[in-house]
Amino acid sequence: MKKIALLLAKIIFSLGIIVVLLLKFDLDQLYRTIINMEYWYFLLSFLISLLGLYLGTLRWQILLKEFTIAIPFVELFRFICLSFFYNFFIPGAFAGDIIRGYKCKKYYISSTYGIASVFIDRLIGLVSFILFGIFGMLFTLDVLKQTKLFTPFIIVLAISLFFLFILFNRKIISCFKVLSNMHSILYKKLKQLYNCIYFYKGYKGILVTALIVSLLGSFFNILVFYLLSVSTGGVVPFINFIFFIPIITIISYLPISYSGLGIREAGFVLLFNQIGMSREQALAIPLMYFGLLFLLAIVGGMIYIFTINLNVAKVEGATDSRRQG
Fold it and tell me: pLDDT for 89-103, tens place per residue?
């Protein structure tokens, strides 16, 4: 019941921000901006987003290879598609991430190892945006100070860096000992999960390789926003998107909205309006991006469903071979 209430609160908060923005804008101009966009750029943005899913799969495969080499890349891609579908329609609960972690059990990997790999995968994705965000902040400090995004960004950045600092500190597990008497099973699961996460500390080469792939994926994500801008006739240089998009993305990670909706739009208007983009266009771009995410989630769900029968046959064959061996 509490989870449902929290989800409803996030939806209301997001819609509230959108409504406030719409009331202050020329709705006719906003409608014309979206309806008159160059659809080829939107299609190209969609294809690049699919490429982003491919890179996300590659990053996850790199992180999993120390646990197993049995999971085919195509299968991991299916899990990523399913995860994206669930994470879009059940935001804030990380349902899709948990599901793809459990899906690894098909290939004789414990759910704990699977979820640990997903956790590190998401963490590296955040780190790549933090690095872009720090780079962007250095070149946009004056603009940030003129908006209300500077303080929230610094807070989120500080919390993220602190979290990264304590994550690979072996002593952190002692903080969970209080649960050993209250709930021994939960303590055992948390300890096992943390040990799996800490395992990666000894494989810095894997983490660096995954981070490089993640940086490329983050770059493509920034490129998607730029192409959506071009589709509406935007003239803001690409370099500004490299500066601003990571900042907006990190701010939208705050767990107070529905999939970043509202936060992302307000951030876009505040930042890009400072450098000459019209308010209507600055609002149209993130709204189009949200529509792109919706389309991508639907396609991801369809990819998983329409390949499930083929996958079942492959898994059963692999299981039979393993038993015979």
Answer: 876 556 778 888 888
